[in-house]
Amino acid sequence: MTQAADKLQSDQEIIDSIGAYGYGWHDSDDAGASARRGLNEDVVRDISAKKNEPEWMLERRLKALEIFDKKPMPTWGADLSGIDFDQIKYFVRSTEQQATSWEDLPEDIKNTYDKLGIPEAERQRLVAGVAAQYESEVVYHQIREDLEEQGVIFVDTDTALEEYPELFKEYFGTVIPAGDNKFSALNTAVWSGGSFIYVPPGVHVDIPLQAYFRINTENMGQFERTLIIVDEDAYVHYVEGCTAPIYKTDSLHSAVVEI
């Protein structure tokens, strides 16, 4: 084969790969299979109870549910009228506790993140911190010690509500309130997981903090809530990504990021 023919073949392979989706596999679905479908007050109360949240957060969730029920579907963006909210599974807990070592994760979840290349990025020090969310909750979290020593906070949002309640309450919902649109109300009602970042004055986090969100369950709804607070003369580089399996029916990813 000539050099020109080699190049044509290589170019064709690149063209053929465009639009190909390489993340469509799924793991076993034991946790998701038993998850309840549909959205109502009982579902919202159940999510809050499982997380042992303070009363003010439950009240915020219930108020957001009322707003969600009253708000029309947004007319901007794509046509979302086909979403059947009664078929969505709003909370799936895949593990009982968060891991600080990849080896401590269940084998199928660990293998999924290996395929996605997330542990390798951490091993090569391409990121300064990693959050890995699987279904509704963050299952792995880590941050470099030198950043912690400078006062940088990088935890999952559920942990932030528990450990930094005053800081959390001061900023939660101030950029994107529940009343902004139907989907901000939905997220506020059923949010789970996400990243919480605080960078003190004058501190620069130049190497990225990374979060990755993976859906596994069919008809799963993933509703992480990310809150990033950067103080004066501070800087943070934050990146996130998400993937889901390919099923015959829909899943829903409806996140809120407040900066």
Automatic annotation (TrEMBL):
Residue ranges constituting the SUF system FeS cluster assembly SufBD core domain according to the UniProt record: 213-259
GO biological process, one term: iron-sulfur cluster assembly
Residue ranges annotated for the SUF system FeS cluster assembly SufBD N-terminal domain, each copy included: 146-210
NCBIfam families, per the entry: sufB (TIGR01980)
Family: Belongs to the iron-sulfur cluster assembly SufBD family.
Name by which UniProt lists this protein: Fe-S cluster assembly protein SufB
Organism: Corynebacterium urealyticum
